[in-house]
Write a structure and sequence with these properties.
The structure is a single chain. 53% of the residues lie in helices and 11% in strands. The protein has helices spanning 4-12, 18-24, 44-47, 51-61, 84-98, 130-146, 163-174, 177-183, 185-199, 203-217, 221-244, 263-271, 305-320, 334-346, 380-398, 405-422, 434-437, 445-462, 480-501, 505-525, 533-557, and strands spanning 26-27, 36-39, 68-74, 77-82, 112-116, 150-154, 275-278, 281-284, 294-297, 324-330, 355-360, 363-365, 430-432. It has a 4-stranded antiparallel β-sheet with strand order 1-2-4-3. Strands 6-5-10-11 form a 4-stranded parallel β-sheet, sandwiched between helices. It has a 3-stranded antiparallel β-sheet with strand order 7-8-9. Strand 7 and strand 8 (281-284) form a beta hairpin. Helix 5 (84-98) packs across helix 21, helix 10 crosses helix 11 and helix 15 (380-398) packs across helix 16. The longest helix is centred in the C-terminal third of the chain and has 25 residues, at 533-557. The structure holds arginine.
Length: 565
């Protein structure tokens, strides 16, 4: 496909540098005013002429040539009309030839991105608070892959700390393997909650927990065995949920993995003269940067969350030699990451600037949407199950004869929940209601899936599964709805790149809603299936392009697209 911006810049360069021109050209918002515009204001000073004068000269340089139709100078802008018929042909042709690779690029070739996301805590079940990190991290993983990067998904397990001493005590007192087997991680979490209730009037328990924690640290066999049991139960559980959410991890190296890897980075900081002693603890003073000191070794010699993250950063650089290392973690941990990154920077490590905290806001349910049990955790599985059940009800009511209803309801319900975490700028706090995220006509995943299924059903009704190699006569597509669709489809590769570079899957979400809405307008305006096969096939070629982008776009968000709904 022709790169139109480049094509135009090529024709105009001379006095102005070609790349500058190309980067200044924008797509025109109003189709009636053209397709590409070049604002000429920024050249006025350099060329000692008025913007309108420059635009007029440019307009004269662009003659109709089969690619460009005409150009006009209006108020200092050069407005270019492309040959729209050819443009639409081009866009459709490109999508057809690239298929599900459309939108991919090679910009990341030879580069590696680490993404630390979801990062669960052992002996706890995934809860609604994990939705943001899991959905955003999962989508960034897929977006960077599409751009050709090597991506390393890391689940930095919370598998170290005094809480595991408590877990062992609770398990030995009240643990019931059958119940744990049936309830999974929730069964462990329940024990933990009970421990805290009992501990209040029985300080003896606190002492026992401390003992057990010590035994874990000393590598005591029984303590290890129990800890590994908790870990196995938790991971079994969360892996099932990750499968439903279409996310994957390449590393499960968590906090305890760094038990024996903290000395080297600490010594490195000491050698740089960064560590000072404060009340017996080892800290990096950050007062110059308006931050509290970064505490790395407590006075009793024990390490902290930050020490483990410090070791993990060194380890990741050594092991993966990343170009970027992302941490998709709630904004509440903002200070922690600012401190960590600052310490690395002060240590003179150039890669400190490649560390990014991809912060996000809170997801919560509207009041009363789900009964929260004691300890008020709303489990993610329960939210998914409820969304799936509601989807099944809706689908059954709308389309009672549909086969495979359960499978489709799973795709719709889970998709709706994922989308709720990806539809808005990630930093926003969101409250979701089941009715809103499952509204088939709203700006939701089910709406996108429904539009995709509508595309598929057109092919089904036409009796073909895809268009054969013949090039249909696209002159049928010379109308404003098709032009808008083609323009949107053409933007898809840029949308993928922008969503990744800004760590913002919501850019893709909003784009897909736009595309689906434009498609549905097109669908209403144009009767696609008809006796006239030339016409029908041209319109179906447009449908095919949209269908390809919808499916791939949804997949990049982690959402499945059923062919029927
Ligand atoms: N497990 C932590 C929590 O639940 C999140 C870990 C994020 N990753 C990291 N490298 N600190 O808060």
């Amino acid at each position: 496909m022709i790169n139109y911006k480049q094509y135009i810049a090529d024709k105009l360069c001379g006095q102005i540098d070609k790349t500058v021109l190309q980067n200044t050209i924008v797509t025109t918002a109003d189709d009636a005013k053209g397709d590409y515009s070049l604002p000429c204001f920024r050249f006025a000073k350099e060329l000692h002429r008025s913007p309108q004068d420059i635009a007029s000269q440019f307009a004269n340089q662009l003659v109709g040539d089969g690619v460009i139709d005409k150009a006009e100078a209006v108020n200092g802008y050069l407005n270019v009309f492309v040959n729209r018929q050819k443009y639409i042909d081009d866009v459709i042709g490109k999508v057809r030839s690239e298929g599900d690779k459309y939108g991919n690029s090679k910009e990341g070739k030879g580069k590696t991105i680490c993404i630390d996301y979801s990062s669960v805590n052992i002996a706890k079940s995934l809860h609604i608070g994990h939705l943001g990190t899991t959905a955003i991290g999962g989508s960034l993983y897929k977006l960077f892959k599409a751009l050709g990067y090597k991506v390393v998904g890391i689940n930095h397990l919370g598998d170290y700390g005094t809480q595991f001493g408590k877990m062992i005590v609770a398990y030995k007192l009240w643990g019931d393997d059958k119940r744990i087997k049936a309830m999974g991680a929730k069964g462990l979490q329940e024990l933990y909650v009970k421990f805290h209730q009992e501990e209040e009037h029985n300080p003896e328990l606190t002492e026992q927990a401390r003992e057990w924690f010590k035994r874990i640290e000393q590598g005591d066999e029984e303590a290890q065995k129990l800890f590994l049991y908790f870990k196995r139960i938790t991971l079994n559980d969360v892996k099932r949920t990750y499968k439903r959410l279409n996310v994957r991890f390449d590393s499960w190296d968590g906090e305890s993995f760094f038990n024996d890897k903290m000395d080297k980075p600490l010594q490195f900081l000491r050698d740089k003269g960064l560590i000072t002693i404060s009340d017996g603890a080892q800290v990096v003073d950050l007062s110059q940067y308006d931050m509290p000191p970064c505490l790395l070794v407590k006075s009793d010699g024990s390490s902290l969350y930050a020490t483990r993250d410090l070791a993990a950063a060194f380890y990741r650089k050594d092991t993966y030699n990343f170009d970027k290392c992302l941490y998709v973690v709630a904004y509440q941990q903002d200070l922690h990451f600012r401190q960590l990154f600052k310490v690395l920077e002060l240590a003179g490590l150039p890669w400190a600037q490649d560390m990014v905290h991809v912060a996000y806001g809170m997801v919560s349910l509207e009041e009363g949407a789900m009964s929260t049990r004691k300890g008020n955790a709303v489990f993610l599985e329960d939210v998914l199950d409820k969304a799936v059940q509601k989807s099944l009800d809706i689908i059954t009511a709308k389309n009672p004869d549909l086969s495979d209803k359960e499978k489709i309801a799973e795709q719709v319900g889970v998709g709706a929940v994922i989308f709720s975490a990806l539809e808005n700028a990630r930093i926003k706090d969101i409250t979701f209601t089941f009715d809103r995220v499952l509204n088939f006509d709203g700006e939701t995943a089910p709406y996108l899936q429904y539009t995709y299924a509508r595309c598929c059903s057109l092919f089904q009704k036409a009796g073909i599964s895809y268009l054969a190699r013949i090039m249909p006569d696209y002159s049928v597509l010379n109308n404003i709805e098709c032009l808008r669709l083609a323009k949107l489809v053409a933007r898809f590769p840029d949308i993928i790149a922008e969503s990744a570079h800004k760590y913002e899957p919501s850019i893709l979400s909003k784009y897909l809603i736009d595309l689906a809405q434009s498609f549905n307008k097109f669908y209403i305006e144009h009767r696609i299936l008809s006796e006239d096969l030339t016409r029908q096939n041209a319109l179906l070629a447009m449908v095919e392009a949209v269908r390809t982008v919808l499916k791939k776009g949804l997949a990049l968000l982690g959402i499945d697209a059923p062919e029927k709904m």
